[in-house]
Automatic annotation (TrEMBL):
One of its GO terms (cellular component) is extracellular region. This is L,D-transpeptidase. InterPro entries: LD-transpeptidase, LD_TPept_cat_dom, Transpep_catalytic_dom. GO terms for biological process: cell wall organization; peptidoglycan-protein cross-linking; regulation of cell shape.
Length: 226
């Protein structure tokens, strides 16, 4: 099954002339939304979550602790029951639930909260994770620079770092031998997890993408549910 794009996205692609050019634009950082009145009270955050999303000064670029008042508890990383016909090692993205699963043995999976493509930029189907990069460089496509001229300074690539649009790690998604230009990548904006905010890329908290990076083997199947 090939990756599919909804009709709204096809209309956008027609106007821009290229799926590959547009899809990479989804990896750009977005302005964080305003604080919600229902954000998690600090007193209700469990200690294991604080430890899991601690600061990571040991990284090449130190990663700050996640502000867990901006993250719904259902998006905390955790092992869950997940019976599936997909083999262990498969990565499954469920856009409707805003979750990513790394399938394990015994009918379980490690589950992560994610941010996904906004309306008109969704995608689904089967592909594979060709390779990954630690602290990758991000280069915005020309179509995105045309919409956001301030990004022209990164035409030759945004250097790696905590403010890089791809965050601490990135997985590069291929369909056959073709780079789809979709990415699974990190973010330092917890308020975007659980939201439809990108133009196709799937984002995880930096702490979660670092954890996932240690688990996923390059070449692993990727399934994005419709």
């Amino acid at each position: 099954m090939k990756l599919t794009v909804n009709p709204d996205r096809r209309a956008v692609l027609a106007s821009l002339g290229s799926l590959l050019t547009l899809s990479m634009a989804g990896c750009a950082a977005v302005p964080p939304p305003p604080r919600r009145p229902d954000e998690v009270p600090p007193t209700s955050i469990p200690d294991h979550a604080r430890l899991m999303y601690r600061a990571m000064p040991e990284e090449r670029f130190p990663i700050p602790a996640v502000d867990l008042t901006k993250l719904e508890p259902r998006f905390y990383r955790q092992v869950v029951d997940y019976p599936t016909s997909e083999k262990p090692g498969t990565v499954i993205v469920d856009p409707a639930q805003r979750h990513l699963y790394h399938v394990q043995d015994g009918g379980t999976a490690m589950r992560y909260g994610v941010g996904i493509g906004k309306a008109g930029f969704e995608w689904s189907g089967r592909a594979h994770i060709a390779y990954g990069r630690e602290w990758p460089v991000w280069t915005p496509p020309e179509s995105m620079i045309a919409r956001q001229p301030e990004l022209a300074r990164w035409r030759q690539g945004q250097p790696p770092g905590i403010d890089n649009a791809l965050g601490a790690r990135a997985f590069y998604v291929h369909e056959g031998n073709r780079d789809t230009l979709y990415r699974l990548h990190g973010t330092s904006h917890p308020e975007t997890i659980g939201k439809a905010v990108s133009s196709g890329c799937v984002r995880l908290l930096n702490q979660d993408i670092v954890d996932l990076y240690q688990r996923v083997r390059f070449g692993s199947p990727l399934v994005v549910l419709a």
